[in-house]
Please model this.
Amino acid sequence: QDEKSLYKERIKQLLIEKNAVLVAHYYTDPEIQALAEETGGCVADSLEMARFGNKHPADTLIVAGVKFMGDTAKVLTPEKTVIMPTLEATCSLDLGCPIEEFSAFCDQHPDHTVVVYANTSTAVKARADWIVTSSCALEIVEHLEEQGKKIIWGPDRHLGNYIQRETGADMLMWQGACIVHDEFKTKALRDMKAMHPDAAVLVHPESPLEIVELADAVGSTSQLIKAAHELPNQKFIVATDRGIFYKMQQLCPEKEFFEAPTAGEGATCRSCAHCPWMAMNGLKEIEDALLDPKGREVFVDMNLREGALKSLNRMLDFSA
Ligand code: 13P
Ligand code: SF4
Model:
C-alpha cells in the first residue's frame, strides 16, 4: 500500500472512533474530496457545507476548506467540536475586510442594509444584516432591491459588480478581491476561446467583470458543476480554482476541461487557479487534527456568535 492509502485507512478508522464527519470544499485536493465522499461526509460549495454540518448528527465536524468555513460551522453548531486540518488556511477576502474599518464604513451609512459574503470573519458577519454565498447572493440582493433597500456590499468587489449589473441594486462596494479569481486574464481568455470555439466558458463571479462577460454560465462552484453536466458542449474553459475539476470530471468523464488562463506570456501570478489556503488541507493534517485537535479546534467569540447566527440563519431560511 502506498503512503496515501495508509493515511486514508487510518483517517477512516479515526472518523468512526471519534464520531466525526469530513466536510470538504470543491477546491480541496482530489484525494480529500474522494475521502469525504467515501466516508459519508460531503463535498460541496460553501452554502451546502454550512447546511450539511448544521444537520449532520456527528459530534465532531472536520472542515477541510478555509477558516471562514470552520467559523461558520461553529457559529451554527456550537455544541459540536469543529476541527480543521489547519487554522492557518485563511482567505484574501476575509483578510481584506478587518472589522474595525468595515464597521466604521457601515456606521457612515446607517440607512443602508449591510450584506456580506460568507468569506468573512465572525465579527464582520455579526455586523451584517444579511450573509450570502455566491449560490444565493443574486436572489437575496434581488429581494432587497424589490424592497427598495440601499445596500452596503462587502468584501468582494467583483462579485458585487456582477450582482449590481444583474439586479440594478443601489450598492456601496467594499474593495476586496479573491487572489485566485482576480488573476484570470481577459485577452488570454479571448484567445483561448478562439482556439476552442466549441468550448463553453464557465466563470465563478469572484472573477473580474470582463471575465464574467465572456461566460456561457456564471455561478457558485456547485452551479458551475451543474452547468458542466447540463450544457451539451464537450469542452469547457473553466475560470475558477482547478480543484473543481475533480467533481466535473467525475460527473462528465467524456468531457474535456481546460483551466482559464491566469497570466500572459512571461507574466507571473501569485496563485494560478489554485487557492494557496485550500491547498494547505492535506491527508497528514487531517489525521493530525483527528489525533490531537489542540491548535486545530475552532472557537468563536460567544458575544459575536449571536449576531452572526441571526444573519446566517436568515440566509439559510431564505435559500431553503
Ligand atoms: P462557493 O460558495 O461558490 O463554493 O465559493 C467559495 C469560495 O471561496 C470561492 O472562492
Ligand atoms: Fe478565498 Fe479566493 Fe481562496 Fe475562495 S479561492 S477561499 S475566495 S482566496
Observations:
- Residues 93-177 form a domain with the Rossmann fold fold (CATH 3.40.50.10800).
- The chain has three domains: 3-90+278-299, 93-177, 181-259.
- The mean pLDDT is 96.
- The first strand starts at residue 20 and ends at 25.
